[in-house]
Amino acid sequence: MDALVVGGGVVGLAAAYSLADRGVDVTLVEKGSLGNASTARSAGGIRSQFSTRVNVELSLASKAVWNAFEERFGVDIGLRKNGYLFLARSEETAEQFRENVAMQRELGAESELLTPAEATEHCPGLDPDHFRVATYNPDDGVADPNLAVQGYAAAAREAGVDVRTKTAVTDICLDDGRAVGAAVTADGTTERLAVDYVVNAAGAWAGRVGELAGVDLPIAPRRRQIAVVEPSVPVPESAPLTIDLDTGSYFRPERDGIALVGGHFAEADPDADPERYDEGMDIDWAAEAVERAGAYAEYFGPETRIRRGWAGLYAVTPDHHPIVETSIPGLVTAAGFSGHGFQHAPATGRIVADLVLAGETDVVDLSALARERFAEGAALTERSVA
Q1: Spatial separation of the C-alpha atoms in residues 328 and 198, rounded to whole Å
Q2: Cross-strand bridge partners of residue 27
């Protein structure tokens, strides 16, 4: 069996590896360089604290791979389990947190409900007076997305994947409604590849790839930013990734006293052109991000220095859940993770291989992730989004 994977981010690489590891002859094409789009620009979070069962299940299945990544792939991805700390200001959010923790624990996650005072045991610089309740999971953490890409890419090549960078898909070939191949272009030369399956793992470009096959995917590229700052009070390296969910502000420690701050604060959230968006950081946004973090954590006082930053793209669906499905015969879609693609890549790779080889999967209930949910009024609601 032959498969073409479109997209060389971590989701595409995980899918290509999983397919090849199960005997499929795989070609992967990436219009730029591997992992250089959304994956390289992510915060690297890995967490189980979501508000829907399917996202928690994707997290737990993926964590089984992330936790053993170095042993399995021979690459240290810098996994640090400092935990995630979610904070609720409103009673509505607090009640949602209580429901979330009950559901997460039922599925096997280590989440716990904390008082604001208890939250300061994990994040000492936090001002607890702003919050009603918190949730914490010590098994959550962060890893280096670039190292993960390197690990998956090496494993994919070793498994026999033909990895082609600077190669764009310009057409999906259909035969009686089934995807049977694609036209790929590199260095001005176009080649037609005949395959049994095409996998659309193109992230922010997934909607455009879907259009080539006549598939309408409600996936919008949305610009998000991260600032690298030197806090006025060093954030302990043991501190968790901390999210003030009602305001959308978050921060986490890096090494050597550096911290990352982020969040989306504007009401407007226009689509971005993935070919031409501004990859730099807006200094006004960075100042607001620091100010918001400083409003509830002592680390980010007036002496905080903004050192640098960047912008990347979320591939966002209307309900902040991915589309993972067989969209038409011969075409599998795995895209629209809305900022969670890095952490859910291992589970998604296995699911893609299951769909190609068996037409179904037992990892999660995929009916929740089919694009028909939007037309049928069955969209999910993921509240734990920053």
Answers
A1: 10
A2: 4, 162
The DSSP code for 80 is B
pTM above 0.85, yes or no: yes
Tell me, which fold does domain 2-47+146-219+318-375 have in CATH?
Answer: FAD/NAD(P)-binding domain (3.50.50)
Per-residue pLDDT of the chain (386 residues), as tens digits, is 999 999 999 999 999 999 999 999 999 999 999 998 899 899 999 999 999 999 999 999 999 999 999 999 999 999 999 999 999 999 999 999 999 999 999 999 999 999 999 999 999 999 999 999 999 999 999 999 999 999 999 999 999 999 999 999 999 999 999 999 999 999 999 999 999 999 999 999 999 999 999 999 999 999 999 999 999 999 999 999 999 999 999 999 998 889 999 999 999 999 999 999 999 999 999 999 999 999 999 999 999 999 999 999 999 999 999 999 999 999 999 999 999 999 999 999 999 999 999 999 999 999 999 999 999 998 888 888 87
For residue 87, give the 3-state DSSP assignment: strand
Both tokens of 94, joined, read 């607090």
Would you kindly state where each structural domain of the chain is located, as residue ranges? Answer: 2-47+146-219+318-375, 81-141+221-316
What is the CA angle 156-162-164, rounded to 5?
A: 105
Task: Give me the CATH topology for the region 81-141+221-316.
Answer: D-Amino Acid Oxidase; Chain A, domain 2 (3.30.9)
Amino acid residing at 5: V
DSSP string of 276-343, one letter each residue: T---SPPHHHHHHHHHHHHTTBTTS-TT-EEEEEEEEEEEE-TTS--EEEEEETTEEEEE--TT-HHH
Assigned token pair, 245: 């969910």
The DSSP H or E segment spanning 230 is strand 220-230
**How far apart are alpha carbons 113 and 94 in whole angstroms?**
10
Helix (H) or strand (E) holding 57: helix 53-66
Kindly list the distances between the CA atom of residue 269 and the CA atoms of 87, 216, 220, 272, 287, in Å, as whole numbers in the listed order: 23, 21, 10, 9, 19
2-47+146-219+318-375 matches 81-141+221-316 in fold: no
Q: How far apart are CA 30 and CA 11, in angstroms?
A: 12
| Alpha carbon of residue 136 to chain centroid | 20
Q: What tokens were used for 380?
A: 């999910």
